[in-house]
């Protein structure tokens, strides 16, 4: 089973005070994934939220905005169809195979034989946004995971091992959290965060995720 089943638009930030920016983006991310029952990231947020209730000191500070946003959404109400936010996803049949684009719940098949169709779609619809690519992956050691964050516009290539984690979905959430943190640090107003297969990160960023312990 792929840990990264889709490339998805996670968040579009708007202009708001920088002190609230990362919390707002986390809310956007959680709201969009809360509408996708099949998304493993949503399931992992549920698991993390439950664990943090049982063990409040466990992994303190690792992903507070995401968990806080998830708890806010679940305590507020069950999302209904009218609450669904726009979510743009790419499902490649193969890593560079013919993709299938999901736009606002409707599938549009692409005839391209590589990722160019998706990149064109991204540039057409989100040319005003700064692109961040994120992924969590296993190392050769099956009990260790790592993460990668790449932003060509800001010349960011961040990668490393997560010594405290062994779950690949948690590594993906951490990568998204790091991207949100970097957006805040660089005062990025409009951003599209793409949960990207590790192979595409290698193509875009020119590197593999190497084990360098991040504590």
TrEMBL record:
One of its GO terms (molecular function) is nucleic acid binding. Gene3D superfamilies: Ribonuclease H-like superfamily/Ribonuclease H. This is RNase H type-1 domain-containing protein.
């Amino acid at each position: 089973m792929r840990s990264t089943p889709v490339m998805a638009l996670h968040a579009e930030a708007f202009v708001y005070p920088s002190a609230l920016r990362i919390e707002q983006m986390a809310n956007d991310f959680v709201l969009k994934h809360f509408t996708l029952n099949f998304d493993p990231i949503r399931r992992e947020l549920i698991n993390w939220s439950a664990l943090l209730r049982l063990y409040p000191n466990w992994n303190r500070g690792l992903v507070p905005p995401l968990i806080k946003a998830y708890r806010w959404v679940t305590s507020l109400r069950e999302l209904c169809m009218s609450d669904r936010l726009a979510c743009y996803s790419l499902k490649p049949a193969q890593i560079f195979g013919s993709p299938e684009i999901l736009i606002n719940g409707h599938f549009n098949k692409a005839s391209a034989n590589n990722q160019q169709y998706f990149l064109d779609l991204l540039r057409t619809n989100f040319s005003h946004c700064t692109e961040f690519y994120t992924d969590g992956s296993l190392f050769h050691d099956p009990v260790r995971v790592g993460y990668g964050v790449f932003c060509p516009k800001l010349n960011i290539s961040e990668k490393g091992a997560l010594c405290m984690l062994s779950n690949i979905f948690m590594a993906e959430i951490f990568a998204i959290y790091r991207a949100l943190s970097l957006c805040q640090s660089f005062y990025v107003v409009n951003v599209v965060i793409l949960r990207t297969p590790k192979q595409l990160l290698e193509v875009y960023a020119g590197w593999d995720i190497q084990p360098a312990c991040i504590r």
